[in-house]
User: What shape does this take?
Amino acid sequence: MAMTMAEKILARAAGRQQVSPDEIVVAPVDLAMSHENADLVRKTFQQIGRPTVWDPGKIVIIFDHRVPAESEKTAATHRSVREFVRAQGITHFYDVGRGGICHQVLAEQGHVRPGMVVVGTDSHTTTHGAFGAFATGIGATEMAGVWCEGALWFKAPATIRILAQGEFQAWVSAKDLILFIIGRLGADGADYRAVEFDGPAIRGLTVASRMVLTNLAMEMGAKVAFTPVDDWLLEYLRPRTAEPLERIEPDAGAVYESTLEIHLERDVAEPQVSCPHAVDQVQPVSALGSVRIDQAVLGSCTNGRLEDLEVAAALLAGRKVHPDTRLIVIPASQQIYLEALRCGYLEALVAAGAMIDPPGCGPCVGVHQGVLAAGEVCISSTNRNFVGRMGSADSQVYLASPAVVAASAIAGRIVAPSVLEEEVAACLA
Amino acid sequence: MSRLILRGHVAAALGHHVDTDLIYPGRYLNITDREKTSEHLFELAYPDLRPRLGPGAILVAGRNFGCGSSREQAAAAMRYAGVQAVLAVSFARIFYRNAINLGLPAVVCAETARIASGDELEIDLEGGMVTNRTQGVSLASAPLDPRAVALLEAGGLAPYLKKKYAA
Assistant: This one.
């Protein structure tokens, strides 16, 4: 019988001909990723009492949530993970200054390939469906179990298919598309489901932009999310891995629970903004009215990639961040930092008055590097705007694309980039 | 009484989409002593709720409880605060697995709107029934999967695996 991506990968992993939604299968794990919470995994692993992890070559540990250590407590956590990594012979470990945000590092270092089963102790592990992997987030205790057993039970999810066609309008990006979809389906609209994004508009996206879709699918509850495994993706992966790459696709005739069709010109005619305090509170930017901002943040596993820094640099070149606003920019990885440096993006951003944070999660976890005071308002290219997410419980976070974040940093209020163009045109007239 | 029949009072009835940042703020994620996590439960969003949670407390919520971050401290902190079960119309999937893996019963019940703070409940985890003794109604709940029952009986995944490997 025809199968979706999720069914196909799970069936193969579990050694079965077929898997249908709601069936429970036990599948071997191909890659198990953790960040700083590897310390919690380690504690539980040691409590279980196994002497060695199941496969030190299949575990990847990447520090990103608190880098460099912001406190003595975190420094001690980092140290205990380093000691564990050494003792267990874990081969893939990205320490401070060696990697960046876990999901970006997994991608650019070629750790994830089509057809793999990937688990990570981070909810945005769904990102790796952009590489054709069945990839999902789990808790630290469950990961300790994976470190022991090398396998995990999964309930096969039903799949929602999202087909997008049409052209992306000026200043409209993958971020705007996925915010629109989350607004339409709701914060639990894909709970326990797989999501498959497809259609000409999706196939035309860069790998970096596809990662935005699969990353944020988590914010509507998705267990896993996929974009197509096509030539473009294989080209991205080939220089990054020596392993064979397989073109895995859903079968024609696979059964979908529902299908959502998006026409970009009609549905996402302009940039979208997610308003406090829930990701599904989405409005087109023109509907917002005047929202003054204290801070703008460009970064995270959602939108801290080279193309994101590029669009911000293009908007900010020759302009200044508004005097009442601060702009924080966080390249998603060391590699992106270096490329942005070479391309001159960082120079343009710094000259405009941006502060560059080191590659990592930055203020998105509400710990350091730009947390918000009570009463402050932030526009951010990150992924969550829950109460207290980026600091005070009385602060407000709006989520938008890198272009809207950059334009808003210049304007000192939330605006579409087209507003800046109109202002320039008005000055010249 | 079997440990899979729970009795207790509802400490709070919460709404929809209670996310894990509300339950356990990100700033405390570097606390790795699980017992200490309970001090910060609901701290930013519902500061008056924490003192009402004690041994045997039951929490009730609407849809998509525990959405957001995979941080298992959200479930661990509740357990260490003494919460004996969470009932919700639906759970975000990572929270649900974390709860069971940490020995905290998470019960899916479509009619949690018929339960109020202070109500006395009896929950039959395997039978799939919630009896609201205060209001005199019985509400259907999803019976726990045998896999979840085995984990809860062991006290969570870690003790379950420890026992398995010791055998």
